[in-house]
Every structure is written in structure tokens, then in C-alpha cells.
Amino acid sequence: MKLTPQQKLDAFSHRFYSNGQWEPKAGDHYTTSRADLELYQVVSVDENIVRTRYTEGSDTIAEWPAAGFLTEGFGPKRVFVPEWILSQPPKEYLIGDVTSEKVFRAAGLTNLSDLQGVFDAVEKALTPTVPSPDENPWRPWKDMPIGDQRFIVREVCGEEGQTALAYWTGRIFAFAPVNDNPVEVPFKVTGQRTPPPTHREIDS
């Protein structure tokens, strides 16, 4: 088994903040001050030798001089992990239905301990999807959405392929954003469609 990040923090707190003491005995677990989640177990302790093993990944038994197991060489870097830390139930975090559907299920993500995978899924869910031309065709300029045209920003095009973000003032197509001093787009508008996700002016 390996520690969770919270268990490692709790072990450090027990050792360095609470000044927890440790006399190694068979069955005890410990970690180290390295930036990893490895967990080790004391196999046996006699007058001269302390035998230890990894709890995951290797069955090799290591032998260390008992006299300096905690004080010499690598010794001070060993951090006791009390049983109460290992037996704590894992913390549970609630995820709302919308987040579950739009982020985790959409990404097929089941291992939430993979933080990079979680961040990637969130970023993908928040990144606007730009529709393809087939999904977002040009429509006649008179076929505008229902509503107050003066506040509806559209992507408009001209006869020679010019494009811009604009809105219909009731008299002219003016550059977006909507404002009190409309500036007319410098071409005859022949079509319009839903604008891209980010409302920025498009070079003509």
C-alpha cells in the first residue's frame, strides 16, 4: 500500500509539530521525508538489527543497525506513521450532478486521485467549442434572430469574404460591441450567423 497525501501530512504533523516519539517494533509503519508516498514496515527488531520492507512493489527485506536506526545516516529521515493515521477512513468529497455530467462523465474519468486528469477534464469542459462551418452556416442578413436587433451581436460577412462582429442598429450594421456611437462596417453585409465563442473583432 501507499500513503495518501493527507496521511503523509498527518505523519509529518505527528512527528514535527506534536513531537511524537517512536521506539520501533515489529509491525510498525514508517515513511520518509522524501517527496513521495512510500510506506515501509518494520518486520523485526532484535538487539543488533532492524529488518524492514516496502509495503508495495518489493518483498526484499532490508537490514539496518539497530543502534542508529533513527539517529545515524538515513535514520533521522524516517517518519513514524501511527496506526490511527492508517486506519482513518478516506475523506469524501461531493460532486454535483452538473459537474459529474459535464466534466467527469464527459471525460470518462473515474480515477479522481489523478489530479492532472481532473484538471484536464475541467479545462476541456470550460473550453468553448467552436462550431464547424457546416454546423454554423451563413444565413441571409434579413434572417436575424427574433428580439431587439440593436442588442444582438452577429458575425456578418460581405460579398468579398469580409467578416466582422456587428449588430443591426435599425439603420446600419455597426461594429460590436453595442455602444452609443455606432461605426458602420465598411462593406455591404450579405450574410450573418452565430458569432464565435469569444466576442472579439474578426479581421476582414
Distance between the termini: 61 Å
Strand content: 15-25%
How much helicity do the residues have? 10-25%
Instruction: Indicate the mean pLDDT.
Output: 85
CA-atom Rg in angstroms: 32 Å
Number of helices: 4
What are the segments in which pLDDT stays under 50 over at least 5 consecutive residues? 199-204
The number of distinct β-strands equals: 10
Order of helices and strands: HEEEEEHHHEEEEE
Strand order of the largest sheet: 4-3-2-1-5
Kindly name the structural category: alpha+beta
Give the overall silhouette. rod-shaped
Q: Characterize the biggest β-sheet.
A: 5 strands, antiparallel
Annotate the secondary structure layout.
Elements: H1 5-17, E1 29-32, E2 40-45, E3 49-54, E4 62-65, E5 78-81, H2 83-86, H3 97-107, H4 115-126, E6 139-140, E7 154-158, E8 163-168, E9 173-175, E10 189-193
Helix pairs in contact: 3-4
What keyword list fits this structure?
five-stranded antiparallel beta sheet; 22% strand; 204 residues; 20% helix; alpha+beta
Structural write-up:
- With 204 residues, the protein is an alpha+beta fold.
- Among the domains are: 5-86, no CATH class; 139-193, no CATH class.
- The chain is 20% helix and 22% strand.
- It contains 4 helices and 10 strands.
- It has helices spanning 5-17, 83-86, 97-107, 115-126, and strands at 29-32, 40-45, 49-54, 62-65, 78-81, 139-140, 154-158, 163-168, 173-175, 189-193.
- The strands form 2 sheets. A 5-stranded antiparallel beta sheet has the order 4-3-2-1-5.
- It is rod-shaped.
- The two termini are 61 Å apart.
- The model is unreliable at 199-204 (pLDDT under 50).
